[in-house]
Amino acid sequence: MDKSHDDVHELLSENYEVWLRLPSGEIINEAMEEDIIRVQAVNAADNGYPLRIRRVGKAIVMKRDIEAEPFGIQAYRFFKKYLTRPDLILTFGKDGIKRYDKIIAKQKRD
């Protein structure tokens, strides 16, 4: 069954594990994988939970990481990787970004 981005977002929001693969059976290449993750990251940003992502065979498997604190440092690390700067600001605010960047920088030094 083909799913739209909104359908995938809805399933992830309901804490389902979502398996995505190409109908042709080909492997999803890295560029496609990045695009898929970016779209779902933008969708997931509204609830603040990062996604757990793994590859199983030819599929990408995604699930909301309910063990992470919504809008917490783990979520920030995930969203910083996949959201544009304006979307990151909308999600965490400028002060939140500064705070988490300082924490990450300190952790790198330690």
In short:
With 110 residues, the protein is α+β, with helices and mostly antiparallel strands.
Task: Please describe what this structure looks like.
The chain is α+β, with helices and mostly antiparallel strands. The chain has one domain. It is built from 4 helices and 3 strands; from the N terminus they run αβαββαα. The chain has a 3-stranded antiparallel sheet with strand order 1-3-2, covered by helices on one side. Strand 2 and strand 3 form a beta hairpin. The longest helix has 25 residues. It is elongated. The N and C termini lie far apart (48 Å). The mean pLDDT is 92.
Features of the shown structure:
110 residues; 3-stranded antiparallel beta sheet; alpha+beta; elongated; 54% helix; 4 helices
Q: Taking strands numbered 1, 2, ... along the chain, how are they ordered across the largest sheet?
A: 1-3-2
Ends distance: 48 Å
| Helix/strand structural class | alpha+beta
- Could you tell me the strand content as a percent range? 5-15%
Considering DSSP H and I runs of 4 or more, what fraction of the residues is helical? 40-55%
Sheet having the most strands: 3 strands, antiparallel
Number of helices: 4
- β-strand number: 3
Shape verdict: elongated
SSE run = HEHEEHH
* Rg, alpha carbons: 15 Å
Q: Mean pLDDT, nearest integer?
A: 92
Give the uncertain stretches in residue-range form. Answer: none
Tell me the number of structural domains.
1
